[in-house]
Amino acid sequence: MTAQKILLVDDDEALRVTLSRALRSRGYDVYTAGDGDEAAGMVESLQPHFAVVDLKMPGKSGMRVLEEISLRSPQTRSIVLTGYGSIANAVEAMRLGAVNYVTKPADADQVIEAFEADRTTRTQLHRPSLAESEWNHIQKVLTDCDGNITHAARILDIPRRTLQRKLKKRAP
User: Fold this and answer.
1) Which of 28, 136, 26, 7 is nearest to 72 (CA)?
2) Which residues pair with 124 in a beta bridge?
3) What is the pTM of this model?
4) The pLDDT of residue 125
5) Model pLDDT for residues 84-127, shown as the tens digit of each residue
């Protein structure tokens, strides 16, 4: 299993070096960029699992970098790292694709915790309903029976006609 890749974008070299070293010690492959232009050039080829983006940088801002990441690597989960925390900035960052917001000074544990909090929230938000669970189970049994409705109905222990009615409905 390969380590997950993190792109760390910050113009503060001391923070970049310290944070990248700490993240590497926790098992991540860390790639760093000192400004938005450098980060934009790396995103498409790197396709990182995660990105940590400083909001205020000279040249291309962190907001522009978030846009680039969303366009070039949509599966990348990004968090914004900034010393200038405000609700307006957080809302704008989320609109541009960030999944969380961490204020400086931040350490590796806070960054990882921000990604974990996002994953936990997404898991809780995507719990299937009872109808979805039933639909998925029926589809799995039907697939296992090679589409044979009579056999699937027997396995599900429901009348064949009931199974046919359930299958005529749209998926929840």
Assistant:
1) 7
2) none
3) 0.65
4) 47
5) 766 777 778 888 888 888 888 788 888 888 888 765 455 444 56
- 3-state DSSP of the chain: CCCCEEEEECCCHHHHHHHHHHHHHCCCEEEEECCHHHHHHHHHHHCCCEEEEECCCCCCCHHHHHHHHHHHCCCCEEEEEECCCCHHHHHHHHHCCEEEEEECCCCHHHHHHHHHHHHHHHHHHCCCCHHHHHHHHHHHHHHHCCCCHHHHHHHHCCCHHHHHHHHHCCCC
The parts of the chain modelled with pLDDT lower than 70 are: 1, 85-86, 118-128, 171-172
What CA–CA distances, in Å, run from 154 to 43, 142, 146, 148, 168? 52, 11, 14, 10, 18
Distance CA 20, CA 163 (A): 55
How would you class 13 by CB atoms within 10 Å of its CB: exposed for 0-12, middle for 13-18, buried for 19 or more?
exposed
Residue with tokens 């109905």: 153
Q: Give the pair of three-digit tokens for residue 109.
A: 């544990």
* Confidence at residue 128, expressed as pLDDT on a 0 to 100 scale: 65
